[in-house]
Write a structure and sequence with these properties.
By secondary structure, the protein is an alpha/beta fold. The chain has helices at residues 19-36, 51-59, 112-124, and strands at 12-17, 42-48, 67-74, 87-88, 100-108, 129-138, 150-155, 177-180. Helix 1 (19-36) packs across helix 2. The longest helix has 18 residues, at 19-36. The structure holds guanosine-5'-monophosphate and magnesium ion (MG). The site of magnesium ion has 4 residues, from strand 5.
């Protein structure tokens, strides 16, 4: 780590993707999405909290008229392992009736979160179509049958933080993605 690196970055054991690499990846993905949806109205729905950062950068790489919205769910409850249950933290779902929808999340792990969101949207919101985009996808056997339409990077089965991804609600503001040093697990 460089001398001017913020102190938070020094808590990482390993950097997987730095800021420039993430930016390039998102630019490429935005271009592909713009091509695929060309001429179609589009609503991007971020999965809060982590998906918000990815959405903010991604939409500026999709040069089409579009709308944004968000859905708030929780599955990790702040720890490093999925609780297995997806809880919707808001009563009102986005207004996506008749719209092409792209749900964006930071990472695809067990698949439960995006699968639950897409099912609920299909059942209750009457969208025209639903696709999904994730910055990271863990190369693991999913708990449910689900794959995203747009994937930035594939990673192994390890717990990562940064660029929206948290550990106990912190580290989301790290501009890079990496693995925390053991000494920072279990303490803030
Ligand atoms: P899934 O429902 O696919 O198991 O998990 C998706 C959610 O779990 C993501 O939105 C993210 O909040 C959280 N998650 C999964 N893997 C990681 C990880 O390695 N690090 C962090 N910080 N969150 C993760
Ligand atoms: Mg999440």
């Amino acid at each position: 780590m460089g001398q001017n690196e913020p102190i938070l970055g020094e808590r990482l054991e390993r950097v997987l993707f730095d800021q420039g690499t993430i930016r390039e990846c998102i630019a490429g993905m935005g271009g592909r999405i713009a091509q695929d949806f060309h001429g179609e109205p589009l609503t991007i729905v971020a999965v809060l909290q982590g998906g918000a950062l990815f959405m903010a950068d991604l939409i500026r790489e999709i040069h089409l008229p579009l709308r944004i919205d968000a859905v708030s769910v929780s599955s990790y409850l702040g720890g490093t392992e999925s609780s297995g249950k997806v809880t919707f933290l808001q009563e009102k779902l986005p207004n996506i009736e008749g719209r092409n929808v792209l749900v964006v999340d930071d990472i695809l792990d067990t698949g439960r979160t995006l699968s639950a969101i897409c099912s609920r949207f299909r059942e209750e919101c009457n969208p025209k179509s639903i696709r999904t985009a994730v910055l990271l996808s863990k190369k693991i056997e999913r708990s449910v049958e689900f794959e995203a339409d747009y994937v930035g990077f594939e990673i192994g089965n390890e717990f990562v933080v940064g660029y929206g991804l948290d550990y106990q609600d912190e580290y989301r503001n790290l501009p890079m993605i990496g693995v925390l040093k053991d000494e920072w697990i279990g303490r803030i």
